């Protein structure tokens, strides 16, 4: 949908060396009020209201950026976030409940998106068409078709689109990946990601939308459905809106694996099995899932596992080397011919060498932070430079990493090992699996074939 069409719709409806900080340096022009970057935050749950707004406020002076507008289909959330921003900055941002009206505001330079997954692609495409740069939460897409359309939109409209896999901007992890590429553990033959998170399930709670909630806008591209409180608070684990644990948490670790192994394409063979093994609830994505894939021409195996509820640690991750929440067991293990490397959070790495697991190079940041500010800084610098190569997590990287999650879920849903054609982004002789590469869209919220 072109900008004019959208308006008609509105009217009708590394490191250079191992010791160096590795985030690409981008020269910024001298800051003034006239070149201030005016950002709108769309989606005001925890990530949008706390993490996105928090990072932008922290960078306000350094990057000459301001939160100019906020948007959420629940006007109560918007009012809460606007009050918090005003308290912290002394200025109340403009507020919207329909992002299409926000996108028509030419004074907005860029948007950061923290909405449920099923909205990410259409919002990104709309923003690119409106001439705005984008920071989009992970996973960038809800399915593989959408991811490719996001890349096409960024290219066609010349926009700077950053994917929210913030480990790419984490200096210590960049150092670790650089060491991996230099051969610190020899030839890597297996990479394993894990997301063992203790999460309670939930039951459907149907009823009338609360005052201020524009439920039709919350649903957007998804099928028409009655208001459901479970969807609002647990959308990550309902397949119409989210992509399960592997899409919510796993995309971070799978992205690190791709980065560490220099995997710049899709796998050719994928398999997955699992189920909802812990809770008796109404969520329809697997709580426990095992995924494996192979890449053409590469002598290695990539695996990923999710677990829900109580679990052991693995390779010291989660106890000796805590995750960002100091509670769950999450991370990546690279296994090489000379040793192994673990990345247990968003800001550290540890190497162990030889048969006795002798400690090798390592680096960490006290407190195991989320590293959101570093990633927003990188995005804002690229917005100024107008060079997408300055991004550490440009949208095409996000597409490939998100696609691993989607491929895992498709293999899980079909119940068999699948062969995938990376160039065509289609399965080989498998019409049933091909149907799951996209979804039916609810008019008029349609992700277009031509962006």
The assigned CATH architecture of the largest domain is 2-Layer Sandwich
Low-confidence stretches: 1-22, 26-33
Helical segment tally? Answer: 15
How many E-type strands?
A: 16
**Helix/strand structural class:** alpha/beta
Rounded to the nearest angstrom, the radius of gyration is 21 Å
The CATH C-level name of the largest domain is: Alpha Beta
For the record, give the distance between the C-alpha atoms at the N and C termini, rounded to a whole number.
6 Å
Q: How many domains, in number, for the residues? A: 2
3D shape: globular
Strand order in the largest sheet: 14-13-12-11-7-10-9-8-15-16
Residue share in β-strands: 15-25%
Per CATH, the superfamily of the largest domain is Dihydrodipicolinate Reductase, domain 2
User: What is the CATH third-level topology name of the largest domain?
Assistant: Dihydrodipicolinate Reductase, domain 2
- Helix amount: 25-40%
If you average the pLDDT, what whole number results? 93
Largest sheet: 10 strands, mixed
Describe the structure.
By secondary structure, the protein is α/β, with parallel strands linked by helices. It has two domains: 3-24 and 32-168 and 372-394, Rossmann fold, CATH 3.40.50.720; 171-369 and 402-437, Dihydrodipicolinate Reductase, domain 2. The chain is 34% helix and 20% strand. Helix 12 (250-261) crosses helix 14. The longest helix is centred in the C-terminal third of the chain and has 20 residues, at 395-414. The protein is globular, with a radius of gyration of 21 Å.
Task: Give a nutshell description of this structure.
By secondary structure, the protein is α/β, with parallel strands linked by helices. The chain has helices spanning 3-12, 46-58, 60-63, 75-89, 99-103, 117-129, 144-157, 171-182, 215-219, 229-234, 244-248, 250-261, 372-385, 395-414, 431-434; strands spanning 37-42, 65-71, 94-96, 110-113, 133-136, 161-163, 188-197, 269-275, 288-294, 301-308, 329-336, 339-343, 349-353, 358-363, 418-421, 426-427. The chain folds into 2 domains: 3-24 and 32-168 and 372-394, NAD(P)-binding Rossmann-like Domain (Rossmann fold); 171-369 and 402-437, Dihydrodipicolinate Reductase, domain 2, CATH 3.30.360.10.
């Amino acid at each position: 949908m072109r900008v004019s069409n959208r308006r008609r719709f509105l009217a009708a409806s590394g490191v250079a060396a191992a010791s160096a900080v590795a985030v690409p340096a981008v020269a910024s022009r001298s800051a003034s009020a006239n070149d201030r970057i005016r950002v709108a935050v769309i989606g005001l749950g925890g990530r949008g209201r706390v993490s996105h707004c928090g990072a932008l406020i922290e960078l306000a002076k350094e990057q000459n950026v301001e939160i100019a507008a906020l948007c959420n289909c629940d006007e109560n959330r918007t009012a809460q976030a606007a009050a918090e921003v005003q308290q912290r900055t002394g200025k109340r941002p403009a507020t919207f409940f329909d992002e299409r009206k926000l996108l028509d505001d030419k004074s907005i330079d860029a948007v950061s998106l923290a909405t449920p997954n099923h909205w990410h692609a259409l919002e990104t495409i709309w923003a690119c068409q409106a001439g705005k740069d984008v920071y989009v939460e992970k996973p960038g897409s809800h399915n593989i078709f959408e991811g490719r359309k996001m890349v096409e939109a960024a290219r066609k409209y010349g926009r700077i689109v950053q994917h929210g896999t913030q480990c790419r901007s984490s200096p210590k992890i960049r150092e670790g990946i650089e060491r991996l590429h230099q051969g610190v553990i020899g030839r890597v033959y297996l990479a394993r990601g894990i997301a063992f998170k203790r999460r309670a399930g939930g039951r459907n709670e149907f009823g009338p939308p609360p005052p201020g909630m524009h439920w039709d806008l919350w649903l957007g591209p998804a099928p028409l459905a009655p208001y459901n409180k479970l969807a609002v608070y647990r959308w990550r684990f309902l397949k119409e809106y989210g992509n399960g644990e592997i899409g919510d948490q796993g995309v971070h670790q799978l992205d690190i694996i791709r980065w560490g192994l220099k995997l710049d394409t899709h796998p050719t063979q994928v398999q997955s099995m699992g189920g909802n093994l812990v809770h008796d609830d109404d969520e329809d994505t697997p709580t426990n899932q095992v995924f494996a894939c192979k890449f053409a021409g590469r002598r290695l195996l990539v695996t990923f596992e999710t677990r829900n509820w109580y679990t052991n640690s693995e390779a010291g991750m989660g106890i000796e080397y805590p995750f960002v929440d100091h509670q769950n067991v999450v991370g990546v293990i690279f296994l090489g011919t000379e040793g192994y490397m673990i990345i247990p959070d968003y800001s550290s790495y540890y190497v162990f060498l030889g048969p006795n697991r002798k400690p090798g190079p390592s680096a960490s940041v006290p407190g195991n932070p989320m590293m959101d500010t570093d990633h927003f800084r990188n995005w804002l610098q690229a917005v100024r430079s107008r060079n997408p190569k300055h991004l550490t997590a440009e949208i095409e990287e996000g597409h490939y990493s998100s696609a691993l999650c989607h491929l895992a879920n498709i293999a899980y849903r079909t119940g068999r090992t699948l062969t995938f054609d990376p160039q065509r982004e289609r399965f080989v002789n498998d019409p049933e699996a091909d149907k799951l590469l996209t979804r039916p869209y609810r008019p008029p919220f349609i992700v277009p074939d031509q962006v």
